[in-house]
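Bumping my old thread because nobody answered last time. Still need a sequence for this structure:
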C-alpha cells in the first residue's frame, strides 16, 4: 500500500518552514509504513511529527535522487496529520509498506508516470469514458473501472502450474483472470479472443448448428449455448453444455497437472482440456471443435520504464489489493504454427519492449490432426472468421486486419456415427 502526500493534502499555507498535511488510512488494521520526503535539493535537517507527536529529527539519508528517508510510522485506520519542518522547498511525502519501493526505482516511476493532478488519490479517481474503454479493450477491467474492487469480475477455477500463473475458467465457460505474465496484481480479465466453439452438421445436409461454448459472449459473434451444467472444484472444472438446437452432446473436463507431493509435475505451466463428444441422433454427424487463444504476450506485469507512450502504460486500475498503471504493448506480437507432433500455434513477440516481466511465449496444442489458423486480427477480422467457421471452414482463412489485437486457433474435426462418442484434447 502506498500513500502519496502532496499539495492536495495540505492544511492551509506553509507557516515558514513548517508544512502540515492531513491524510487518511482507509483500510482496517494497523500498518507499519516507511516514510520518505520528496525534495529536489538536499533538505538539510528535517523534523517530522505525526499527530503532533515527534517522530524524527536530523539530516535524512538519501535513497534516490528525490526521496530522503524520514523514518517509519505505525498507522491505524483513520485520519492523521503529518508535520514536516524543513528549510528546502518540499514536494511531498511517500508512505509505503514496501520498504524496497524507492531502492527498486518503482517510486520514481510511479511519480514520473502520474497522468493527472491528484492521480494518487486512488480511491477518489474516476477514469474518463475513453480511458475506461481502453482498459476494457486491453483486458484489465471487465466492464467498469471498479470491477475488481466491487467484485464484479468473473471468477472460476484457476488452471495452471504452481508458480506459473493461471487462467480461470468460469461456470459460464469464460476464460478470465489470466496471470501468466507476472501480472498477479493486475490480472487480464477480458479475453475476447480466447474461447471454444462447436459446430455440428448432419451427413448429407447443408445446414449446420454453431455455438459458442459459453452462456454469454464477450465481444464474440457466435451464438452462445443455452445453458451449462458446471462443477468447479479446484484443480478441475467439469462443464456439460446444453442447447436444444445442438444435435450432439459435448462435455469438457479441464484440469491442471496438480499431483500430490510431486512438485515438478505440479509446476508444469499448462492447462489441459478434454472434450467428450457424443452423437445421440440417428444421423451421422460431422463435429468441428474450435479452440481460439488471444496473444497476450507483453500484457500485464509491473512497469519498469517511464511512460513514453500513453497506449502502453494505461490509466490506473483499481483493485482491492493493488492500484497500478497496467502495461499493454502488443505491437511486436506474432503467431506461427508450432513444429513437432500434433498441431499447435505459438504466440510470441519479437522483443520485450523493455518490459521483460510480461515477455514470453504461449502455445495452444492438440495431439489430434487439426487445421491451424495461426493469425487473425480479433477486431477487424473476427466477424469474417466467425462466418467462415459457420460456413463449414472450407479453404484457408486469410486475415486482412493489421491491428495489434491478434489470436490463433486450432480446428479439430470428428465424424461420429449414431450413438458413437469420441474425445478431443487441447493443451494451453
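Sorry it took so long. Here it is:
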Amino acid at each position: 500500500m502506498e500513500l502519496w502526500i502532496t499539495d492536495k493534502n495540505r492544511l492551509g499555507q506553509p507557516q515558514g518552514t513548517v508544512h502540515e498535511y492531513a491524510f487518511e488510512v482507509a483500510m482496517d488494521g494497523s500498518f507499519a509504513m516507511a516514510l520518505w520526503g520528496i525534495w529536489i535539493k538536499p533538505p538539510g535537517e528535517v523534523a517530522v511529527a505525526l499527530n503532533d507527536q515527534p517522530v524524527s529529527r536530523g539530516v535524512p539519508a538519501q535513497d534516490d535522487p528525490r526521496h530522503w528517508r524520514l523514518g517509519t510510522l505505525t498507522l491505524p485506520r483513520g485520519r492523521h496529520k503529518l508535520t514536516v519542518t524543513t528549510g528546502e522547498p518540499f514536494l511531498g511525502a511517500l508512505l509505503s509498506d514496501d520498504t524496497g519501493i524507492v531502492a527498486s526505482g518503482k517510486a520514481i516511476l510511479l511519480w514520473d508516470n502520474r497522468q493527472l493532478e491528484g492521480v494518487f488519490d486512488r480511491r477518489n479517481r474516476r477514469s474518463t469514458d475513453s480511458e475506461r474503454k481502453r482498459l476494457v479493450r486491453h483486458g484489465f477491467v471487465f466492464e467498469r473501472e471498479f470491477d475488481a474492487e466491487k467484485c464484479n469480475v468473473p471468477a472460476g477455477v484457476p488452471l495452471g502450474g504452481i508458480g506459473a500463473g493461471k487462467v480461470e475458467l468460469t461456470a459460464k465457460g469464460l476464460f478470465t483472470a489470466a496471470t501468466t505474465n507476472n501480472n498477479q496484481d493486475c490480472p487480464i480479465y477480458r479475453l475476447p479472443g480466447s474461447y471454444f466453439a462447436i459446430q455440428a452438421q448432419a451427413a448429407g445436409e447443408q445446414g449446420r448448428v454453431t455455438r459458442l461454448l459459453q452462456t454469454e459472449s464477450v465481444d464474440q459473434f457466435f451464438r452462445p449455448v443455452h445453458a451449462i451444467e458446471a462443477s468447479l472444484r479446484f484443480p478441475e472444472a467439469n462443464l456439460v453444455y446444453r442447447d436444444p438446437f445442438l444435435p450432439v452432446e459435448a462435455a469438457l473436463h479441464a484440469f491442471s497437472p496438480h499431483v500430490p507431493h510431486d512438485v515438478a509435475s505440479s509446476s508444469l505451466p499448462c492447462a489441459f482440456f478434454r472434450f467428450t463428444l457424443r452423437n445421440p441422433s440417428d444421423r451421422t454427424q460431422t463435429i468441428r471443435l474450435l479452440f481460439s487463444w488471444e496473444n497476450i504476450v507483453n500484457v500485464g506485469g509491473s512497469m519498469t520504464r517511464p511512460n513514453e507512450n500513453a497506449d502502453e502504460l494505461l490509466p490506473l486500475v483499481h483493485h482491492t489489493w493493488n492500484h497500478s498503471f497496467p502495461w499493454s504493448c502488443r505491437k511486436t506480437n506474432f503467431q506461427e504454427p508450432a513444429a513437432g507432433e500434433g498441431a499447435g500455434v505459438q504466440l510470441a513477440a519479437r522483443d520485450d519492449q523493455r518490459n521483460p516481466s510480461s515477455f514470453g511465449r504461449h502455445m495452444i496444442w492438440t495431439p489430434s490432426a487439426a487445421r491451424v489458423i495461426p493469425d487473425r486480427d480479433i477486431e477487424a477480422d473476427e466477424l469474417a472468421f466467425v462466418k467462415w467457421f459457420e460456413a463449414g471452414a472450407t479453404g484457408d482463412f486469410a486475415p486482412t486486419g493489421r491491428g495489434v489485437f491478434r489470436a490463433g486457433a486450432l480446428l479439430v474435426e470428428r465424424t461420429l456415427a449414431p450413438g458413437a462418442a469420441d474425445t478431443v484434447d487441447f493443451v494451453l
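Confidence is low (pLDDT under 50) at residues 115-120. Let me know if any region looks off to you.
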